[in-house]
Amino acid sequence: MDIKTIFSQLRASIGFVVQSDLLTEDQKLALPDLFPRWEGLKNTQLIVNQIVSYGVNQWNETQLWQVIQTHMWQAEWTPDNAPSLFKKIGFADSGIPLWVQPLGAHDAYGKGDKVSHKDKIWISDINGNIWEPGVYGWTEE
């Protein structure tokens, strides 16, 4: 077996582990460059909860996106331009998850959830919270 084949199989094995439930979300977020690049998934189906990398975050690190609706890859449906298909995931420097606009009850915030938004930490006051922190349903920590 040549080295190219070995590395290909190793990458496939690592890809399986990072996409599985074997790692916590925190562990997955610490390994962003192990996730498949969105650009490299041409002509494939993306499935709900799959994580892909695309672009960089505010710290110039690889940005991860979670698929929220199964779909076929389309060049114009980049993660940053298709909010009905992808949700940005990640953490602020504080280790608190970044606030992401929920699309509905399936990903709404629960009472007591903490998020980072506009350089502030917020705690959800209600279950089913779909509002932006500072607008309704949040208390600044």
Provide a compact summary of the structure.
The chain is α+β, with helices and mostly antiparallel strands and 141 residues long. The protein has helices spanning 3-19, 25-29, and strands at 45-46, 51-56, 62-67, 71-72, 86-89, 114-117, 120-124, 138-140.
Chain-wise SSE layout:
Blueprint: H1 3-19, H2 25-29, E1 45-46, E2 51-56, E3 62-67, E4 71-72, E5 86-89, E6 114-117, E7 120-124, E8 138-140
Antiparallel strand pairs: 1-4, 2-3, 3-5, 6-7, 7-8
Brief descriptors of the model:
141 residues, alpha+beta, Seminal Fluid Protein  PDC-109 (Domain B), three-stranded antiparallel beta sheet, 2 helices
Provide a descriptive summary of the structure in words:
The protein has 141 residues and is α+β, with helices and mostly antiparallel strands. It has two domains: 1-89, no CATH class; 91-141, Ribbon (Seminal Fluid Protein  PDC-109 (Domain B)). Helix content is 16%, strand content 23%. It has helices spanning 3-19, 25-29; strands at residues 45-46, 51-56, 62-67, 71-72, 86-89, 114-117, 120-124, 138-140. The protein has a three-stranded antiparallel sheet with strand order 2-3-5, with no helix packed on it. A three-stranded antiparallel sheet has the order 6-7-8, with no helix packed on it. The protein has a two-stranded antiparallel sheet with strand order 1-4.
